[in-house]
Amino acid sequence: MDSRPTGYQPRMDADITLTVDGRSRDLTVDTRTTLLDALRERLGIVSPKKGCDHGQCGSCTVLLDGRRHLTCLALAVSFDGAEIVTSDGLADDGLHPVHEAFLEHDGYQCGYCTPGQVCSAVGVIDEAKQGHPSHVTDDLESDIALDDDEIRERMSGNLCRCGAYAGILAAVREAAQA
Amino acid sequence: MRAFDYVRPGDAQEAVRTVAGNPRARFLAGGTNLVDHLKLGVAAPEVLVDVSRLPMDRIEEYDDDHGAGLRIGTNVRNSDLAAHPSVRARFPVITRALVAGASGQLRHQATTGGNLLQRTRCVYFQDVTTPCNKRDPGSGCSAIGGYGRYNAILGTSEACVTTHPSDLAVALAAVDATVVVLGVEGERRVPLRELHRLPGHHPERDTVLDPADLVTAVEVPWSEAARCSTYRKVRDRASYAFALVSVGAALTVQDGVVDDIRIAWGGIAHKPWRAERAEALLRGRELTEESISAAVEEELVDAQTDEETAYKPAMLRRTTAWTLLALAEGRTR
Predict the structure, then answer these.
(1) Residue B272 belongs to some domain of the structure
(2) Do A73 and B100 touch (CB under 8 A)?
(3) Best of A13, A70, A148, A151 to disrupt the B interface by mutation (most B CBs within 10 Å)?
């Protein structure tokens, strides 16, 4: 433990429960542990990836309580009780339609960003169904049609350093129409 | 990351008391900025007081001594605020500002109060190996003469030339929002336009709030102008970037001349900049490219630019003109 000029000694461990991909998991975490590290290092769930670790790349995206969410800018202790679904978990009963579309349209190259892209795409499709507007939506009060501009804008939080964007765009377009 | 205690207070009063009792305690809400600062070493609190689960997450209409409008709980997530039917219909500037910021994931996480209290994205503030008066008072400002593309041009000081990064704050400044604050002495209201401060000799202070002051809600009064409002943001890329300049504006026109007008600028100062001089010049006038340019020029008479920020006045002038002329035609995009 580090020392401080004030001599303050924090209690560092916290007991939390996370439900990940349908399974309840109890664990004790150092309060500094991010949700991403708790999943990967403590629970061995390596589907969410550590890319930038600063909320800039989206590769750690999961669905948390049903919505897409970064796990790197999140302290595990703050998410005690959360229900998390990773890209792996989406495939519990065979591949998810978004997985199928990524395969069909070659929406990846190295695959590192793919679990985050997939979770984000699932979130995008759901948000559009709920009518949530985006930066490129003309009429804020209309229904949302996920055209290419909408998909590009809504997926902008997920970077792909291989540049597989054309395939990703096609995959999300197809999955959105399914 | 330095070790810290994590506590989850039972209510807002307990949260305020806890932070008031320890100068090294900090509120934690959505965490999208603070958790990054913990990693970078920009922040090293002893105690994190997690307010994210406190029941301040509703959007409701109010009609009381303070007027009538929409009260937004501090824990309302940016995505939920942007998508709320009343916000989309009556305050399009708020929705437009929110969806122009961050990413879909981050908007699900970031809260209303946290968005307003986020810290600057100045690269030197976030890099603990460089001097920065905001992070380390008295150490100097690396942005003066350094990488300055995002620097301020209005209200700067010798100590700090950075900008406030929030898009939402600019939108709220345009619609005259009020921030409801709970402090050790009780509740008080701070007009949003007075929440953020100019750097002066104390750039370490972003706002007029004390560390133990907890934003509990934001109140936005109904207005005709807010119905006809929008937000235009210019970025280095099409999405997921901070503003080079931005304009939040609200407008009513009667008989061909401006009746009510509010113009707020982002990306150019340490606070959302309400262009009151420009507004005064345009009230009662016809909106044209020329009248708007003249008004913007007047607002910018005290602007200070250098090589890095020389592009900003012209960009601001054109963006303001585009935004107001679009609103006058009934377009918000």
Answers:
(1) yes
(2) no
(3) A70
Q: Which of B1, B6, B76, B228 to mutate to test the interface with A (most CBs of A within 10 A)?
A: B6
Residue B311: inside a domain: yes
Q: Average per-residue pLDDT in chain B?
A: 97
What pLDDT score does A178 carry? 82
| Residue B281: per-residue pLDDT | 98
Q: Are strands A83-85 and A13-20 parallel, antiparallel or unpaired?
A: parallel
Structural domain contains residue B151 = no
Does residue B43 sit within a domain? yes
CA-nearest residue of chain A to B49?
A78
In order of start, what are the domains of chain A with their CATH numbers?
13-89 (3.10.20.30), 97-177 (1.10.150.120)
Tell me if A140 and B332 make a contact (CB, 8 A cut-off): yes
Cβ atoms of B173 and B193 within 8 Å: the answer is yes
Nearest to B99 among A34, A73, A134 (CB): A134
A8 to B24: CB separation less than 8 angstroms, yes or no: yes
Q: Say whether residue A69 is in contact with chain B using an 8 A CB cutoff.
A: yes
CATH number at residue B30: 3.30.43.10
pLDDT tens digits for range A89-135: 999 889 999 999 999 999 999 999 999 999 999 999 999 999 999 99
Q: Phi/psi at A82 (nearest 5 deg)?
A: -70, 150
Q: Do B6 and A133 touch (CB under 8 A)?
A: no
Mean pLDDT of A144-167: 98
| ipTM value for the complex | 0.96
Task: Please tell me whether residue B83 adopts helix, strand or coil conformation.
Answer: helix
Count of structural domains, chain B: 2
SS3 B218: strand
pLDDT at res. B331: 84
β-strand pairing of B214-221 with B178-183: antiparallel
Task: Select from B3, B47, B105 the Cβ nearest to the Cβ of A58.
Answer: B105
* B29: containing domain: 5-50
A147 vs A140, A172, B18, B123, CA distance in Å? 15, 10, 49, 35
